[in-house]
Amino acid sequence: MDHGERLAKLEAEVDYIRETLVEIKGEQVRLRDHIDRGFAELRTEMAKNTRWMIGIAVTYGTAILGMMAKMAGMY
């Protein structure tokens, strides 16, 4: 093999590697977008669950205070 053939083969390999890297970068961007959407959905669900938990805690707290007041003869 002479240098011209080796150089041509090397250039072909470099072009293939460059194309592969471009594809990987594109997949990385798509994956990051998918993960970001997933985290946004997760944050929405967490906010909803937090509101429910606060509501439940207030409800049970009020019920317990009412039972304590009833047992103490306040009403």
TrEMBL record:
Keywords recorded for this protein, A-Z: Membrane, Transmembrane, Transmembrane helix
Phylogenetic classification of the source organism: Bacteria, Pseudomonadati, Pseudomonadota, Betaproteobacteria, Burkholderiales
Transmembrane segments: 52-72
Superkingdom: Bacteria
Protein name: Uncharacterized protein
